[in-house]
Amino acid sequence: MALQLLTLLLPAAALLVGAGVALLSVAQLSGTQQEMLGLLPYLLVIVAGTLGVGFKRGRVLLAALNLGGAYLLIQTSLQTSLARPDNYVLFSLLSLLLPLNFALIAWYKERGVLTWVGCARVVGVLLGYAVLFALKQSGELAYWLPSLPTSMIEMAFAQTFLSDAAAWAFGVSLLPVLLSLGLRKTHADAGILAAWGAALVMLVWFDQAMISSLFVSAALLALSVSVVQNSYNMAFIDELTGIPARRALRDKLATLGKQYTIAMMDIDHFKKFNDTYGHDVGDQVLRMVAAKINQVRGGGKAYRFGGEEFTVVFAGKEEHEAEPFLEEVRQIIANYPMRIRGDQRPKDNETGKQRRNEGSESEIVTVTISIGAAHKQDTHANPDAVIKSADQALYQAKGAGRNQTVISTQPKVAEPKPRKSTARRSKRDYARR
Length: 433
Fold this sequence. Notes:
This protein has 433 residues and is of the alpha+beta class. The chain contains 15 helices and seven strands.
C-alpha cells in the first residue's frame, strides 16, 4: 500500500519541487518571461478543466477551478500591499475559502460533470470567488478589519502570512484530502493533495515574487497529469490485479526482436474454485496469483491475458533460459498457503478474536497454475503464432495432470544442406584435384 501511494504521489511531488527550485531563480527572468509565466496558469486551467470534462473527472475540474479562481483574485485584487485593510481582509477570507473548497472537493464522489450535481458543484466553487471579488470592488472590506476575530489577525508562524484561522482551516481540510487518497488511491486524489500543498505554500510565503504563478501552474500540471495517468491505467492496467492488461501486451509484442519466449499461464480448476468459494474469493485468488507472477525474475514481464489466464514475455531469451524462472513462479504459487475466511465470520471483534484462536475462523487452501512456453522460431510468422504454440504447450501441461511447466516441442527449421553439383566431371577436373 505504501508503495502504491508513493507511486501515485511521485509525479505531483516532482512538479512541486520543481516549482520550488524555479522560485529561486525567477528574479533572473526578463520582464517578458515573467509576463508569460503570469499567463501560464490561465492556460493550464483550460487544459486541466478540458481534461476533467473530456474524461468525466469532475473533481479534477473543480480543483482546477478552485485554483484558477484564487489565482485570478490574486492577480486582479491582491497586487498591492497587504498593509491595506481591504487587501488584508480579502487575503484572510481567501485563506479560508481555498482550503475548505479542497476539503469538499476531495470528499465528493464522482457524479459526472454535465449533470445537475456536477453543474451545481461548479457554480458553488465559482460563486465563492465571485462574492469575494464583488466585496473587494464594493470597497466594504476595509471596514471589516475591526470586526475580524483575533484568530484571523494573529499569524500562525513568524514571518509568514498565514493567520491562526487559516492554519486551522488548512489543518482541518487536510484530513478529508488524506482520507480520500488513502481510501480511493486514485491519481485524481494525488493531484488534489498536490493542489492543497501548492495553495498552502503560496499563501504562507505570499510575498515571494511569482510564487502564485509557479505553484498554481505546478498544481494544475499535477491535476492534468493525474487525468492522463488515470486514462493510461484504464487502457493498459488491469483494474482487478493491478498488472498490465492485454492491450499493454499487444504493444509489447510489437516491439519484440527476433529472439524471445512467451509463456501462457492458467490457474488450475479456477471455475470449480469460484463455484465452491464464491466470486469474491476468486478475485482474491486472481490478485494473489497476479502478484506472484508479476515478481517473476529473469527479465520476464507479466500481463493479464484475460479471465484466469496470464502471459509472461521474456525478451531476448530462449525457452531453456526462461524455464527456471517459470518453474520458480509455479512453485512459489503452489507452496503459498491462502487463507479463506469463513462465511459466518462474526462482526463482533472480541467474538471474532476468540473464534480465530479456536482455529475455526478460516480455511487454508493452495492454488496451482499450469504453464506452457514457446520460443520464437523461424516457423512462427509473428508473436501471435508463438502465443499459439505456448497455448498448445499449456494444454499439454493441463492434460498431463496440471501444476507443471511444458515447453513447446515444435521442431526448429533445419538448416538447408548445400546442393550437390550434378555437372559431369571430366578427367581434367580430377587431375586438378
